[in-house]
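sorry for the late reply, my laptop died twice this morning and i had to redo everyting from scratch. anyway the thing you sent over, i finally got around to it. pasting the sequence first so we're on the same page, its 316 residues, then the predicted structure underneath. double check i copied it right bc i was rushing
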Amino acid sequence: MREELVKYLPVPSHPEEKIERNDFFVAKEDDVIGRLAVIKVEKGDTLPDIARHFSLGINTVSTANPGVDIWVPETGGRILLPLSFILPDARRKGIVINLAAMRLFYFKKDGKLLAVSTYPVGIGTTEQPTPMGKMYITRKKFRPTWYVPAVIAKDHRKKGDPLPANVPPGPLNPLGEHALYLSKSGYLVHGTNKPASIGLRATYGCIRLYPEDIKRLYKNSPVKTPVRIVNQPYLVGQRDGIIYLEAHKPFEGSGTAEMKKAYAQLRNIEKKSGHALDWKKVGQVMGEARGFPVPLFDINTGTQNGRVVCSGCYFA
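ok and here's the structure:
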């Protein structure tokens, strides 16, 4: 999939800083935001550097570019930036986090329009997963002190790396400089002193953001902001009449039910539109799980595949 896209997508001729990263407006009837983009690798670039520069998680960039060396990508080679996203199937209010996509979405009314800001996140490990469900922000703290939870202290003692009872603000504090405390006791949305962990399952259940991203989210999220955490590896959405499918590798035990849900959505769309879907392609997208929206067909004309749109370029 990546090879097919990158082969035909021209490298954008406009300045890379013009590529949309975080902030979008979404129409009520649409589910897809952003555009795919392609950049050239400069000498000395690494995928983690590129990921952070474009507010993407390392997992997202590496999955979208299979076969590319994470630390020494080929100079002059092209990297697909998966800067297009299908919004989670949840109420568009406050903060919504999709664990499968390792992505946070913050919804806010801007006049008559709905604005959405989106950021990559680091989440809990298999052993210490991030909890799902409805929560809200109970308090905010700039330059928080980290009071080490008992489970983390115990784990570090086992590893011969004992921790103090608390860690004051500063470069050694894993919460970074901004923390949003959730109504689910013991869980936070916070910054990090380990930005390379964004896009990985690397926490004890909290949600981590890049320092520059949590700074913006902290400023814009008042106390009582609702927070909804979901796990949706298969997302179906539409924009401008084109149906898209986005697939992520599901976590253990979560794939079957979510896949059935996506298939049911697509069968319903097929029935309502009166146009046949390319089910072979659906299976391919789900199997490859590249982590970005892939067009399936135009519901108005029945045209298969539709059109892939990136920042300033098109793929037919």
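The chain is about 20% helix and 30% strand.
thats about all i looked at so far, will dig more tmrw
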